[in-house]
Amino acid sequence: MKPILQVENLSKSFGVLELFREINFSIAEKQRVGLIARNGTGKTTLLRIIAGEETPNSGSVIFRNDIRIGYLSQNSGLDERLSILGNVLKGSPEIADAIEKYQYAQKFNDNHKLHKAAERIDALNAWNFENLAMKILSQLEIADFSLPISALSGGQRKRVALAAVLMMNPDFLILDEPTNHLDLPMVEWLEEFLVKSQPTLLMVTHDRVFLDKICNEILEIDNRQLYSYKGNFSYFLEKRQERLDARQANFERANNLYRRELEWIRRTPSARTGKAKYRIDAFDKIREEAQARFDDSKLRIAVKTERLGKKILEAKNISKQFDNKIILRNFSYNFRRFERLGIVGNNGTGKSAFLNILTGQLKPDKGEVEVGETIVFGYYRQEGIRFNENEKVIDALRSIAEVVTLHDGQKISVSQFLTHFLFPSSVQNSCIGLLSGGEKRRLYLCTILMKNPNFLILDEPSNDLDIETLQVLEEYLENFPGVILVVSHDRRFLDKVVDGLLIFEGDGEISGFAGNYSDYYQWKQKQRQEAQTLQKSQTQPEVKIVKREYKNRFSFAEKKELEQLTAEIELLEKEKKELEILFSTGDIDATKNAQLFIRMGEILELLDLKELRWLELMEKGGDKA
Questions:
Q1: How many other C-beta atoms lie within 10 A of the C-beta of residue 409?
Q2: Could you tell me the pLDDT band of residue 493, with boundaries at 50, 70 and 90?
Q3: For 392-415, what is each residue's pLDDT tens digit?
Q4: For the chain, which has fewer Cβ within 10 Å, the N-terminal or C-terminal residue?
Q5: Count of CB atoms within 10 A of residue 455's CB?
Q6: What are the φ/ψ torsions at residue 465 (nearest 5 degrees)?
Q7: CB within 8 A of 212, min separation 6: which ones?
Q8: CB-count burial class (<10 Å; 0-12, 13-18, 19+) for 289
Q9: What gap in Å lies between CA 614 and CA 515, rounded to an integer?
Q10: Cβ neighbours of residue 177 under 8 Å, at least 6 residues apart?
């Protein structure tokens, strides 16, 4: 099949920083390609070159004739002068103008202008075009199409930019971090849209579930070279490890040959005659292979965590609203030691406001938040911090501390700590303005963790971080000896890090779920199927079936019962563990042993009963009919 895109011998550098060198690849019709690399190694630059917004140092980008390209950049690229609908239709300016005038006349009930605008839309055959735009915007939960872009949040801007690209119906789609700033329902909608439409696609994303479901090929930039894998993300992980193992084996083989040949060269200088020239030439090649340097450095997170006291954090009947929009309604929760909670919900339901209330950045309208004396917050905000672009990387961290304490008590310099986070000395003394967006987020993560927090609050940590950084962060969080509270749309990240969810349902309602996001998703699917089955079974059309919703409507007594059950289960688990240790030592007499076995049976029975009741309470949620 003739390729839609052919990239030949493409190279790009910024000063002494070489991003990629003479890379080659092609993309054929219906191929869906994911591009993976560390932050700062040229992913976005490569997309910009292919989209025609950046110039390479050498090489060429060749598209098939008459190809329509749709490009979604990270910064959305919307026209602030136009409305939402105007931006979505800007690929067809005449149609956009006609529809805008029609809506304006409709808004002010001007029948004369309305008639003229309708005639113009008829002449342009644009009614279907408008309907499609409105359908896509509605599916992306954009309701008022006449709003100016300046009135939109970051997530809304992303959705409008996405709608504008999809409206173009491009032959070749380029997406740079399409899931950033989208909530989970929107990510799942986009996923379903791309699976059904199967466009020819090249995209950069850190969302591994998204990559797995959408892409049938992965391209990786590593050490300025490009590697291709004919499969999804899971296949890429397997084959990449095989490539790295083979590279290491070749490197070790070249090293051994190099040592032997070096001994021969040094031992027999007289042998350097014409008949031995082939061996000297071979030696030069082996030396080049043996001395090749690969960037195999890995991100390391090993910071100390301050000890947790008995009192953690308690939210007591907190309420908050902005104008007429209710964010929290009499919400109470007592955080426990080592709790790991994820927060999910649609954009605009108050997730970030909730985090700001917990950390004292925002005052509730009613209620209070009590924070334990030993708590040290590490709050990674979605918007990050505003670095001084002209400040050196190392100076930004030195303004916080001169040394960093690791988990083993060792103290290291800020420079050493930055090296752990893949900022070599050459980069440490460069201006922050020269860093990529992802590198700035990694630097921001440094500023959070160097304070040795024991209560980590992460608001969309996966935005702009590369996959390798996310994997290392996940590993760190899995063993984090403190409390974790995470807002994220990254499903794999949530699955690996949390074991419970707070679901922001809107209108101040928050429900709880015991389990990770995959558990919750399966539960939702089951509820949806049950509702559909129930609806089909109804013979009377006038009977209205309302889908069950998971609402947290505990009574005061049930809340108290849940707290008591949690404490009792923890005590029983502790006693069970102590008995298991006693049994394993065998250092007890027969009479005592029998008594302990009886007690172990009682503990197991009690645990079964109490855990069952605990699950019933967690899942109860006061279903509405």
A1: 7
A2: very high
A3: 999 999 998 899 888 888 899 999
A4: C
A5: 25
A6: -90, 140
A7: 232, 233, 234
A8: middle
A9: 13
A10: 74, 204, 205, 206, 463, 464
Structure tokens that stand for 481 in this block: 């000896």
Task: Provide the 3-class DSSP secondary structure of residue 538.
Answer: coil
Contact (CB, 8 A) for 77 and 175:
no
3-state secondary structure of 176: strand
Rounded to whole angstroms, what are the CA distances from 322 to 94, 319, 350? 39, 11, 10
Instruction: Quick: pLDDT tens for 276-306.
Output: 555 556 655 555 555 555 555 667 787 888 8
Q: What is the DSSP string of 255-299?
A: HHHHHHHHHHHHH-GGG-SGGGHHHHHHHHHHHHHHT--------
- Say which amino acid occupies 261: E
3-class secondary structure per residue, 386-419: CCCCCCEHHHHHHCCCCEEEECCCCEEEHHHHHH
Greatest alpha-carbon span in the chain: 103
pLDDT of residue 548: 36
Q: Tokens for 598, please give them.
A: 């009886």
Which residues have C-beta within 8 Å of that of residue 125, sequence separation ≥ 6? Answer: none
Cα(100)–Cα(90) distance, integer angstroms? 11
Token pair for 194: 């791309």
Of 85, 207, 83, 201, whose CA–CA distance to 136 is shortest? 85
Reply yes or no on whether the pLDDT at 540 is more than 70.
no
What is d(CA 595, CA 604) in angstroms, rounded to the nearest whole number?
Answer: 14
> How many angstroms separate the CA atoms of 82 and 161, rounded?
12
Which two structure tokens, joined as six digits, stand for 566? 């949690």
Return the amino acid letter for 162. Answer: L
Phi and psi torsions of 46, nearest 5°: -65, -45
The answer to whether the CB of 224 falls within 8 A of the CB of 18 is: yes
Give mean pLDDT, residues 512-525: 89
CATH architecture of 313-523: 3-Layer(aba) Sandwich (3.40)
- Please report the sign of the dihedral spanned by the C-alpha atoms of residue 51, residue 163, residue 493, residue 232: negative
Tokens of 410: 């060792």
Q: Please determine, for residue 96, whether its predicted confidence score (pLDDT) is greater than 80.
A: no
> Cβ of 456: how many Cβ atoms within 10 Å?
24
By the 10 Å C-beta count (0-12 exposed, 13-18 middle, 19+ buried), 225 is classed as exposed
Three-class DSSP category at 14? strand
The 10 Å CB-count burial string (b at 16+, else e) for 61-95 is eebeeeeebbbbbbebebeeebbbbbbbbbbbeeb
The top-level CATH class assigned to 3-236 is: alpha beta
* Among the ranges given (64-78, 92-106, 190-204), the one the predictor scored with the smallest mean pLDDT: 92-106
Task: Convert the pLDDT of each residue in 40-58 to its tens digit.
Answer: 889 999 999 999 999 999 9
DSSP category for residue 311: -
Q: What element of type H or E holds 5?
A: strand 3-14
- Mean of the pLDDT values across residues 5-28? 92
Count CB neighbours of 450 within 10 A. 21
How far is residue 142's CA from residue 20's CA, in Å, rounded to a whole number? 39
Q: Name every residue whose Cβ is closer than 8 Å to that of residue 398 and which is 6 or more positions away in sequence.
A: 414
Name the residue among 329, 336, 311 with its Cα closest to residue 565.
336
What pTM does this model have? 0.71
